[in-house]
Design a protein that fits this description.
This protein has 136 residues and is α+β, with helices and mostly antiparallel strands. It has three helices and six strands.
C-alpha cells in the first residue's frame, strides 16, 4: 500500500480526477491478485481415504478419485472458511475446453465450483453428468 500512497501524491499535484480513478484501479488490481493463494499440497481424502498427491501445475482443490472437496476457502487457497464441511460433487458443467465440478457443502449447503483436474477420475465425471442433482 506504500507504493499506492506515493503514486497518489504525485498525481494529486497534477489532477485530482486522475488521482481518484488511478487509486480505484490500483486497489482493484491489488485485491484481484490476493484472491488466489497457490496451495498445492498432498492430503488424505476425508471421504474415500485415498492419498492425494500435489497436482503440479495449479492448486489441488479436490480428490481426483472420488472428486470430493473440503469447504475450507472463501477465496481459493486462503483457508478462511470456518465451515470445513465436505463438498460433495453434485453436477458437472462445461467450462471452456474442460469442465467444472459443481459442489454442495454437506454442512452449510453452499454451492462451489472447481475446474476439473487432468488426472480426475473421468468415469466419476461421467457418472455425475448422468445423474446430476438439481442445485436450485
Amino acid at each position: 500500500m506504500e507504493n499506492v500512497t506515493r503514486t497518489l501524491i504525485i498525481i494529486v499535484s497534477n489532477n485530482l480526477r486522475k488521482c481518484f480513478l488511478f487509486y480505484i484501479i490500483i486497489a482493484v488490481k491489488e485485491m484481484e491478485s490476493k484472491k488466489f493463494t497457490m496451495i498445492d499440497e498432498p492430503f488424505i481424502c476425508e471421504v474415500c481415504g485415498e492419498e492425494v498427491k500435489p497436482l503440479g501445475y495449479t492448486a489441488r482443490d479436490h480428490c481426483p478419485f472420488c472428486l470430493s472437496s473440503k469447504h475450507v476457502d472463501v477465496n481459493p487457497g486462503d483457508r478462511l472458511e470456518e465451515c470445513h464441511g465436505v463438498l460433495k460433487p453434485i453436477a458437472i458443467e462445461k467450462f471452456k475446453d474442460t469442465f467444472k465440478i459443481i459442489y454442495k457443502c454437506e454442512k452449510c449447503g453452499k454451492i462451489r465450483k472447481n475446474v476439473m483436474a487432468k488426472d480426475d477420475n473421468f468415469d466419476k465425471i461421467l457418472e455425475i453428468m448422468a445423474n446430476p442433482i438439481n442445485i436450485d
